[in-house]
Design brief:
- The structure is a single chain.
- This protein is 31% helix and 24% strand.
- Strands 15-10-14-13-17-18-16-19 form an eight-stranded antiparallel β-sheet, sandwiched between helices.
Length: 459
């Protein structure tokens, strides 16, 4: 039966869409169009603009949860934190719940999201049944897999706002148990792909069911797959929101138990392992750092402050240390190329740990702007940090080398962070001709910033 308790009403939603459209009309033609929202999970600096952003203040909630149909109607700027809070009481969650609480559903669909259910559930946009989109023409249209706006439905994923903004999405939901039982299995680099392919094919490992799988490579000789299983057993669970740190437990505990809620957000408290850069993993600092402020959006704001003011960079220069290049990337590598890519990465980049998350498209067909093959298992390799800029090198050189290596290994790269491709290469990799064709229909006056301009030119 549909639930409406504590949810946004249809009237409130319609009013919010009206305010959004009016704010769009007020932006002068030729001026950049951006969302006016408090948080972002993009990691590419953008040029400042003087024009006000789109008013999305009333589009942050859940409209309906239909537990029987296992669907939810959700506003486009609703965070996964709020979405999960609405669905979890029914034992349901989105098919894919990205790791960071403030990622929005609309953002995960127009960008890309991935998590440990992606080996069986694919990417967030593959569980979208329909969505309302504010287009560049100023219209709000309902796009579905078939029908009048099927071209927009298919092209919207990975368009990053270049085709419009989602105001409402109807998505499928998945069952989840109250607890998740974890096994951390240590494997060699050459053992990772066979184990992943077995799990993809059978949903099991060592004859035990697997409902979630991701992993961490700590060094060239130490990698783990974490295998999650839904569990109804009432057991003592671990807590990684306090003094304990989740990623460290992978090496320390062969078995573990978390509540479903804590499992979904296990990476958010310490932003995977990146909170170490802010001192949040120092046991003395951690005791003083309020738990409610140990979360990804707080760390992201600290990064934003550093990007604007370069405080740490100036201190490093005064100490005679080399400037550092930000290397924040997620790339999809075919599973059979994973070991080779990781060895290249160890030798040429040397950042550790790296995150590993298997992915296989659920829909059985490719999507235009992120053309992964539907019959191939990929592994998302995530690495986030900085490397020193070598003498004679320039900022961006390492990222360019990584982009070239990803292509050499048959992979593809997400666009939430810095990109350095030339336009011809970018257009080929991200199928910009297909995007341009659809854009002509839904943004005839080219009011919305193009994908290359957003991802590479940082507009």
């Amino acid at each position: 039966m549909p639930s409406t308790s504590g949810l946004a009403s249809t009237v409130e939603h319609d009013q919010a869409v009206g305010r959004l459209r009016e704010s769009y009309r007020r932006i002068p033609t030729g001026e950049p169009v951006r969302l006016a929202k408090r948080s972002s999970n993009l990691f590419r600096p953008r040029t400042d603009v003087a024009t006000p952003g789109l008013d999305v203040s009333g589009l942050t909630g859940v409209l309906e949860v239909d537990a029987a149909a296992r669907t939810a109607d959700v506003q486009g700027m609703c965070t996964y934190e709020d979405l999960v809070a609405a669905t979890l009481p029914y034992g349901l969650v989105p098919m894919v719940v990205p790791q960071l609480k403030t990622i929005t559903l609309g953002g995960a669909v127009t960008g890309l999201g991935i998590e440990s259910s992606s080996y069986r559930a694919g990417l967030p946009h593959e569980s979208v049944l329909e969505l309302d989109i504010l287009t560049g023409a100023g219209d709000v249209v309902t796009a579905r897999p078939t029908g009048e706006h099927a071209d927009l439905f298919r092209t919207f994923p990975n368009s990053y706002g270049s085709l419009g903004y989602a105001t409402r999405l109807r998505i499928e939901l998945d069952k989840i148990s109250p607890y998740v039982a974890l096994r951390h299995v240590r494997l060699g680099l050459d053992q990772l792909a066979p184990a992943i392919e077995q799990i993809v094919a059978t949903g099991t490992y060592d004859d035990a069911p697997v409902h979630f799988v991701d992993g961490v490579a700590f060094s060239p000789t130490e990698a783990y797959l974490t295998l999650g299983r839904n569990s109804d057993a009432v057991v003592k669970t671990s807590d990684y929101t306090g003094q304990q740190i989740y990623y460290r437990s992978i090496r320390q505990r062969p078995m573990d138990f978390l509540t479903a809620y804590d499992y979904l957000w296990r990476w958010d408290t310490d932003w995977f392992w990146c909170s170490a850069a802010f001192g949040a993993q120092n046991r003395y600092v951690r005791r003083l750092w309020p738990r409610r402020f140990r979360r990804s959006d707080v760390f992201h704001k600290i990064i934003g402050f550093e990007n604007r003011h370069q405080v740490a960079a100036r201190i490093n220069r005064r100490r005679g240390q080399p400037d550092r290049e930000r290397v924040v990337q997620d790339v999809e590598i075919p599973a059979d190329q994973l070991a080779g890519f990781l060895r290249w990465f160890d030798a040429e980049v040397g950042m550790r740990p790296v995150w590993l998350c298997p992915l296989r498209l659920r829909s059985g067909e490719s999507w235009p702007l992120y053309p992964l093959a539907p019959d191939v298992t990929y592994v998302n390799v995530g690495f986030w940090g900085t490397v020193p800029i070598a003498p004679g090198a320039s900022d961006g050189d390492m990222n360019r080398r990584i982009e070239a290596a990803v292509a050499d290994f048959g992979g593809h790269k997400s666009l939430y962070s810095d990109a350095y491709y030339d336009r011809d290469t970018f257009d080929r990799l991200y199928n910009v001709p297909a995007l341009t064709e659809v854009k002509r229909r839904y943004d005839p006056d080219a009011r919305l910033t193009g994908l290359y301009e957003k991802a590479v030119a940082r507009r």
